[in-house]
């Protein structure tokens, strides 16, 4: 009954609870300052407070919670990567995702829909077989599937042999999933704030003070804050923030564009991706088709949408799903992706002693949010680099030990 | 379609061009440390603002430099590489075994 609901809503016995701490003045000192209030920053704060007893923590966000790439990604969760380091890391994240709603007591709308990557060439089949073997060896559900299985999985996919790039096979990843990206950031931030973490929105870090190789304070637009250690988790602005600490990074920022159609009845269950025609498509639980993965051809710090990308994404999506020809587009947007040379993140220690990096999240940041929170919090609390993220340290580039995941990212670059 | 003025071919659609990375001076490969070389190969300034970068007109394989604003996406000017490179850059390697 609508009136019953209204009565409940206005009843003083059930006051509306604020998710996050109300804005207060910044304290003079925090044990840990996290730069960036996205999913990652909130997840690190949550883990510090809940599992390491460190709650004198401030999350400094220049805009609003989860308003950057956390809001702009296409919410794909998967672990079918190619390298051992990558598969172990992302599969640990998928496991955490599966229990995240229970962990928070907050619904993140996790949906285990599976993910299908399409092969349109012999070379792709070979690389998918390789990925499937690596994945299975490390306990991830991935298998090479034939055309018949693809038709069974996605009956409305264009399987014509007369198309520009006929589908020859695919990599079926049963662990693939999606979740509500905002809810992930909100769940982590709520859990962190409930345990004493302070979230400061509209608080931009303008400078970082370093004395004898250690960070001592950050200067913000709302004043100076002394800190025990600093974590930067600012996907899309990593180079700019790291530069304030004097740390060069191997990152180039490219906009990645995506778009959604108006909502339709449920017709597509798995997430379908084609590295060949450069598109990925899935239908959200509210019915919109998300069409993603168009990276701009040159670096830019700008989240404008372009007609070029709209055309190429539409053309590719129609090649896979011709029934979308009549669909109307609702929105098109972009996020700034931190592209690294090897398509893997940069996590862990930095040249500055108590300054930790959570950067280089390119097009793979959302799916890593939970494991990133766990491992980065452990690093900050214990000063020891967890084995899971050791391979992703910044130093790897100086040793020419890249972790090549270029083929396993869904977006085109 | 966004247009880019090529110093050789004039104003063209930007889809005819390939982005070729930031311009930054190459260290001497015979004397630089491995660390400096890694930084030259992998690390980028990635500045928000006006940058100088390499571009190539794909159809004619013509490489040139451009000044571009990475916030507003405006191309400020393009110019031939001989504005910076007055002399030929030699790439001869050391004899095998002498690369310590």
From TrEMBL, chain A:
GO terms for cellular component: cytoplasm. It holds the Pfam family DAO. One of its GO terms (molecular function) is oxidoreductase activity. Residues 32-76 form the Rhodanese domain. Keywords: Oxidoreductase. SUPFAM superfamilies: FAD-linked reductases, C-terminal domain, FAD/NAD(P)-binding domain. This is FAD-dependent oxidoreductase.
TrEMBL record, chain B:
This is Sarcosine oxidase subunit delta. Signal peptide: none annotated. One of its GO terms (biological process) is tetrahydrofolate metabolic process. GO terms for molecular function: sarcosine oxidase activity. It comes from the Bacteria. It comes from SAR92 clade bacterium.
């Amino acid at each position: 009954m609508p009136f019953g609901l209204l009565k409940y809503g206005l009843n003083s016995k059930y006051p509306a609870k604020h998710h996050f701490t109300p804005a207060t003045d910044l304290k003079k000192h925090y044990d840990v300052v996290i730069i960036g209030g996205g999913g990652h920053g909130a997840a690190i704060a949550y883990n510090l407070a809940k599992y390491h007893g460190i709650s004198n923590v401030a999350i400094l966000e220049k805009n609003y919670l989860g308003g950057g790439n956390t809001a702009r990604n296409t919410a794909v969760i998967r672990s079918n990567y190619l390298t051992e380091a990558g598969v172990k890391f992302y599969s640990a994240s998928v496991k955490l995702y599966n229990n995240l709603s229970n962990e928070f007591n907050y619904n993140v709308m996790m949906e285990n829909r599976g993910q299908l990557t399409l092969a349109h060439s012999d070379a792709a089949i070979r690389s998918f077989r390789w990925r499937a073997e690596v994945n299975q060896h490390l306990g991830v559900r991935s298998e090479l599937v034939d055309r018949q299985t693809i038709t069974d999985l996605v009956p409305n996919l264009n399987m014509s042999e007369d198309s520009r790039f006929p589908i020859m096979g695919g990599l079926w990843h049963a662990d693939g999933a999606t979740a509500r990206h905002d809810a992930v950031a909100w769940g982590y931030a709520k859990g962190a704030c409930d345990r004493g973490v302070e979230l400061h929105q509209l608080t931009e870090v303008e400078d970082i003070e370093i004395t004898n190789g250690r960070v001592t304070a950050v200067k913000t637009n709302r004043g100076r804050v002394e800190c025990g250690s600093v974590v930067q988790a600012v996907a899309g602005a990593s180079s700019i923030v790291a530069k304030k600490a004097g740390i060069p990074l191997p990152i180039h920022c490219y906009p990645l564009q995506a778009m959604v159609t108006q909502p339709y009845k449920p017709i597509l269950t798995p997430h379908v991706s084609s590295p060949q025609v450069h598109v990925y498509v899935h239908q959200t639980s509210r019915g919109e088709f998300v069409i993603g993965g168009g990276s701009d051809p040159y670096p830019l710090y700008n989240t404008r949408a372009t007609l070029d990308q709209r055309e190429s994404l539409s053309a590719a999506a129609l090649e896979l799903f011709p029934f979308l020809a009549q669909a109307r587009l609702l929105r098109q947007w972009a996020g700034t992706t931190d592209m690294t040379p090897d398509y893997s993140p940069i996590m862990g220690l930095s040249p500055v002693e108590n300054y930790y990096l959570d950067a280089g999240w390119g097009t793979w940041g959302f799916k890593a949010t939970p494991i990133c929170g766990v491992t980065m919090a452990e690093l900050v609390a214990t000063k020891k680099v967890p084995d899971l993220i050791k391979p992703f340290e910044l130093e790897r580039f100086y040793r020419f030990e890249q972790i090549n995941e270029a083929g396993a990212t869904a977006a085109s670059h | 379609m966004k247009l880019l003025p090529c110093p050789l071919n004039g104003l063209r659609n930007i889809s005819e061009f390939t982005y070729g990375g930031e311009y930054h001076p190459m260290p001497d490969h015979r004397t630089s440390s491995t660390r400096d070389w890694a930084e030259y190969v992998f690390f980028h300034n990635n500045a928000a603002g006006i940058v100088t970068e390499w571009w190539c007109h794909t159809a004619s394989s013509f490489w040139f430099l451009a000044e571009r604003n990475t916030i507003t996406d405006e191309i400020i000017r393009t110019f031939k590489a001989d504005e910076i490179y007055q002399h030929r850059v030699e790439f001869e390697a050391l004899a095998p075994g002498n690369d310590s």
